[in-house]
Every structure is written in C-alpha cells, then in structure tokens.
C-alpha cells in the first residue's frame, strides 16, 4: 500500500510541476496581450465569460463546474494582476455577501474597497476611487434592492457583469454569550429572508436592521445579549460562535449582484441587456413599451416598476432582455422602443452569469 501511495504522490508532484509551467506560460501570454492592447480596460468580462463557458463544455470531471470556474477565475485574476491590481468597491465591512460575490467574480480581490453604503459604492467608482463596483440588485426571496435601482437611474456607470450567489445565513453570537437573547441584528433583506425561522425560534426577540450583515456581526460581537444573522466568513472575522446554520426560509435563496464600471462591454455570445424605461402618460402606454420587443422576438426576463421620484404616482420600469444591444434585432427593437417611450436608458449589456 505504501508503494502505491508513493507512486500516486509522485505523479501528483509531476503534474503540479507541469501545471506551474503552463500557468506561467499563460501568464506570460496574458501580459503580452496587455502590452499589445495598450490603454484600455484590463478586466474584460466578455472574454472571461467565453473562456469559462468553453472550459465548462470540455470539463469531464471529477471536478464540478463550480470548482472549475473557481480555479480558472483565480488564474485569470492573478494574470490580470501582472498588469495592474484592480480596486473593487462593495458594501462592507469585510465579511458581507457583497464581498463574497466580488471575490467570486474577480477570482479574489487584490485591492478591496469596502464601503459603508450602496451610495458610497457607486460614488467610489464614479469618482475614480475604484475600478469596479459590486452591488446587490435582487434576491429570490425578498425581491429588488430598491436603493440600487434608484441609483441606477442617475449614475453614469454601465453594468458590465452579473453575479448569482447562493446565500446561506447563520445565527451568530459572541463566544461568551450564554444568557437571554434580546436582539437580532441583520440587514433588512436578511431579516426578511429568515422571517419564518425567526418567528419559530426567536419570536419575541427585537429585530434590529443594520447597514450590512457584517456590521450586524460586529455589533453582536460587542453585545452579550444579541445575536446576528450573517455569513460563516463574518463569524470567522468577528470571532463569533455559529448557533445555527442555513436558517434562510428558502433553501434555494439566491442574491443577484451587478458589476458596474465606467466602460461598456463587447458581446460575449450569451448576453443580457438591462434597460430603464418610462412610459408616456397616455392610455396603453405600458403595453406599447413591450410591443417592439415582442415584434422582434426579444425575450424579456425581468419587468419591474419603481417610483420615479419625479412626481406622485409616476413610475419607471427596469427591464432585462436577452441579447446585447449591438445585436441587430436588439438594436432595431430599441430604436422603435425609443420612439414610444418618454425615457429609454440602456444601463448596460453584459455576459449572463457563468455559475
């Protein structure tokens, strides 16, 4: 048995050496491409999406699709860093699901920029303090994140990517906490996602909304009579005990995040376009907004209304469609849509999330 084990380990060592040589060769080519491109974005979401899709098609296991994407995102991240470290802003502090989403998309963060609010995340990139922003936009249980939608109406940034993150909540408490629980700290979205669990297990306990789950964990670390709903990573960062895991009401709980940048993204072959629309104040106006999409066979994957903040009972609509705005049929539909809408803003075309 020891001879067989040694042989297997020797083979692994040899493969590791081959991998190291190949990864360095890849990094050298990536650096050469960067020099040929000159000025311009280092991070190309459309190209990275194409790479990941191709690898997933060729993957025969035993590694899962999630493992393959995680490995190669890390490889691409380290190759990018040879040109320049990317600063990525997200809702902080460290330990939030926003940070987890940013790490997933970028293969790790070399220059993280945690912010105290979603507003600051937008401002950080708009002012040049960060290269990219990662913001939550909707949850499968609680729906849209209103503040993100409101800021999208006025920002000059473009959506250049999306991230889907399975969200699993934990109930956390400081190590020496063993008395009565009087408060539950968490972000409002997370309190909603764990509503029924809280009713069943902590029905009479005050629920306190915080700016982020990581902030909730930080507060719980200072309060012997409190618990927090946050991630496992937040438990590690703030040295908290995990009292219960996976307390979200929906085991398939997923949050969708957007990646924002000052530049637009070229087609990747499997894209999505997000639009901001407003209808003219005439009968049938909303129906007319959808007609050009139907006439050109454009699939709509999201249609959400939001108060416009410009007048009482006036609304804008956030629409997601399949395809890139440069696709001929999408371009035709958008041209006709512009004729019948009082407002049309293309928020961005970007690759559909790869796992």
Automatic annotation (TrEMBL):
SUPFAM superfamilies: ACT-like, Chorismate mutase II, Periplasmic binding protein-like II. Its main location: cytoplasm. Gene3D superfamilies: 3.30.70.260, Chorismate mutase, Periplasmic binding protein-like II. Residues 274-351 form the ACT domain. Its EC number is 4.2.1.51, 5.4.99.5. The keyword tRNA processing does not apply. It is found in: Cytoplasm. It catalyses: chorismate = prephenate; prephenate + H(+) = 3-phenylpyruvate + CO2 + H2O. Residues 1-87 form the Chorismate mutase domain. Pathway: Metabolic intermediate biosynthesis; prephenate biosynthesis; prephenate from chorismate: step 1/1; Amino-acid biosynthesis; L-phenylalanine biosynthesis; phenylpyruvate from prephenate: step 1/1. Keywords: Amino-acid biosynthesis, Aromatic amino acid biosynthesis, Cytoplasm, Isomerase, Lyase, Multifunctional enzyme, Phenylalanine biosynthesis. SMART domains: CM_2. Residues 87-262 form the Prephenate dehydratase domain. GO terms for molecular function: prephenate dehydratase activity. Catalyzes the Claisen rearrangement of chorismate to prephenate and the decarboxylation/dehydration of prephenate to phenylpyruvate. This is Bifunctional chorismate mutase/prephenate dehydratase. It comes from Methylobacillus methanolivorans.
């Amino acid at each position: 048995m020891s001879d067989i084990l040694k042989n297997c380990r020797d083979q692994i060592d040899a493969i590791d050496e081959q991998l190291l040589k190949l990864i360095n060769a890849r990094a050298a080519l990536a650096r050469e491409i960067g020099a040929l491109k000159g000025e311009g974005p280092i991070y190309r979401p459309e190209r990275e999406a194409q790479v990941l899709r191709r690898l997933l098609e060729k993957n025969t296991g035993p590694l899962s699709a999630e493992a393959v994407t995680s490995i190669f995102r890390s490889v691409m991240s380290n190759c990018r860093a040879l040109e320049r470290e990317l600063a990525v802003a997200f809702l902080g502090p460290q330990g939030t699901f926003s940070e987890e989403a940013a790490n997933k998309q970028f293969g790790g963060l070399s220059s993280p920029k945690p912010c105290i609010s979603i507003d600051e995340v937008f401002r950080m990139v708009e002012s040049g303090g960060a290269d990219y922003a990662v913001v939550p936009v909707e949850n499968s249980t609680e729906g849209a994140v209103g503040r993100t939608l409101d800021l999208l109406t006025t920002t000059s940034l473009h959506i250049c990517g999306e991230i889907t993150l399975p969200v699993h909540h934990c109930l956390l408490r400081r190590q020496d906490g063993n008395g009565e629980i009087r408060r539950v700290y968490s972000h409002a979205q997370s309190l909603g996602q764990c509503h029924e669990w809280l009713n069943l297990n902590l029905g009479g306990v005050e629920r306190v909304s915080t700016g982020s789950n990581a902030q909730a964990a930080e507060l719980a670390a200072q309060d012997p009579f409190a618990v927090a709903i946050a991630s496992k990573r937040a438990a590690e960062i703030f040295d908290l005990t995990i009292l219960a895991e996976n307390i979200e009401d929906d085991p398939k709980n997923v949050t969708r995040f957007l990646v924002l940048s000052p530049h637009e993204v070229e087609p990747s072959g499997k894209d999505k376009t997000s639009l901001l629309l407003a209808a003219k104040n005439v009968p049938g106006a909303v129906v007319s907004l959808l007609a050009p999409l139907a006439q050109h066979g454009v699939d709509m994957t999201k249609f959400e209304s939001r108060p416009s903040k410009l007048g009482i009972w006036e609304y804008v609509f956030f629409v997601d469609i399949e395809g890139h705005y440069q696709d001929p049929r999408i371009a035709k539909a958008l041209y006709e849509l512009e004729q019948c809408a009082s407002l049309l803003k293309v928020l961005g075309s970007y690759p559909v999330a790869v796992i």
